[in-house]
Structures are given as structure tokens and as C-alpha cells.
Task: structure prediction
Amino acid sequence: VVAAAVVLVAIFVAISTIVIFAPVGRTFADWLTYVHAVERLLAGVPIYPPEQLSGPYVLVNVTLFGYAYPPSSVPLFIPFASYPVGLVAWLTLNVGALVTGLYAILQHELGRVRPVEFAIVLFGLAFLRGFAEGVAFGNASVGVAGLLAWCWVLGRGRTGVGVLAALGGTIKLVPGTAVFWATRETFPRVLLTVVAVGGLLVLVTLPLVGIQSWLDYVEALSYS
Result:
């Protein structure tokens, strides 16, 4: 009963945040930014608009029409670019990755998880500003946090950590630092996994995004 009540509280907080941001046009703004990047890719126009290539800018000012992540991430968003199915799938994937990651951490540290223990974690999550706003904006950071949680569960130096670091680094650069979640002995193996998986994602998506998009990305990143 306690666990169910906390889940309802978490849902209420997330929905309330969505409603609060609706009047100012911020609801699912980050998801829409990803969708618009997909639309530009499929239309054959540059992923990064002129506003990001003409001089210094602030990232928040290019929300909805700009793009802040590597070109190889855009094709990964294609399955989530529709409304409402794609949006629901995107939110489910991100929240699911985080919640299951938190549950896995508890199980890893305690051996077994009782409903009340998990309810305490969810209650804290419900009132964590980054979670509620991440859901309201449809931001990838919610799912990335889940990837980092799973890295902890997998343990330092595991091959799976390299896979998750590469995937997270493809979507956002910072999660790629999970490559350092390794011992001195296992670091070369994890680094090799990151390079292999990341390189594969770049090669597979290159025919779709093109080399020019990577040049644009470096330039846009330098101006941000």
C-alpha cells in the first residue's frame, strides 16, 4: 500500500510539473528538440541550424530548433519521433531505465528489496527537481541517469559498463566518462569496448547523417 501510494505521488508530481510548464511552452520542449532534429535529418537539411554555426550562442536559446548532441544520436531518436506513441515510448524508456536502475542498486547493496525500502527511494525521486523537470521536458538526462545506475550495479571494469558508456556518450558527451568506472587493470578493456561500440554507432549512422554534420557539430560545439 505504501509503495503504491508513493508511485501515485511521483506520478502526481511529474504531471503537475508538466501542467506548470505548459503555459510557457516548455512542456516536452527537449523531446520536441530531438524530434525536430530527426525531421531535419529526414528532410535532408543540416542538423545544426545557422544560428549555431554563425557565432557564439547560449544552448538554451536554440531549444526546439537547434541541437546539442553528436549527429550519431539523431537516428537513435527516430523510433520516438511520433506523437503520442513515440513520446509515450520515450518517457517510458527513460523513466523505466532510471527506476529499474535504482531498484537494481538497492538489490545489489542490500541483497533483497522490500516494498517499503523501494518506496523510500521513489519518494525521494518524486521530489527531486531534476527528475520531475526531466520528465516534463522529455529530457534524455532521465534515461542517462538510469544508465549510470546500471553501471554501478554492473561493477567497475565490466564490459557492460563500456557498452553503456558508449551509448550514453553517443546521446550526451558527459556520460561517456563512465569509461573511467574501471580499475587500472580493466580500464584498457572498458576503453576498447567504448571505442568499438561508439565507433560502430558512428559507422552505422554515418550514411544517414553524413560527414558534414560531424564538421558542423564540432563548430556548433565550439560556439556554444
User: Anything to note?
Assistant: The radius of gyration is 19 Å. Residues 46 and 212 are 8 Å apart (CA to CA). The chain has a mean pLDDT of 92.
